[in-house]
Specification:
The structure is a single chain. By secondary structure, the chain is α+β, with helices and mostly antiparallel strands. The protein contains one helix and six strands; from the N terminus they run αββββββ. The chain has a three-stranded antiparallel beta sheet with strand order 2-1-6, with no helix packed on it. Strands 3-4-5 form a three-stranded antiparallel beta sheet, with no helix packed on it. A hairpin with a 4-residue loop joins strand 3 and strand 4. The radius of gyration is 13 Å and the shape is globular.
């Protein structure tokens, strides 16, 4: 179990360091405690209430309901 936790923490740290080289990456914190690192600034659709972003980890474009977003901030380099 400790090995799995250590490996997951290491992967998360490497991912954050990798994406931190781009100044436009953002951190999206959700109301359930998750943190999503985006590739570029998320776009908010005021009509639908959805936040669209490119997931820096998977490279896929995803959406989340604005009500589920607690905070969005630019990552420091």
């Amino acid at each position: 179990m400790q090995k799995h936790t250590l490996l997951a923490s290491l992967f998360a740290a490497v991912t954050l360091l990798t994406v931190a080289g781009c100044s436009s990456n953002q951190s999206v914190k959700t109301s359930d405690g998750k943190t999503i690192v985006t590739d570029g600034k998320p776009q908010v659709d005021k009509d639908t209430g959805l936040v669209s972003y490119k997931n820096a980890e998977t490279g896929k474009t995803e959406q989340i309901n604005r009500d589920q977003v607690k905070e969005m901030s630019e990552l420091d380099n």
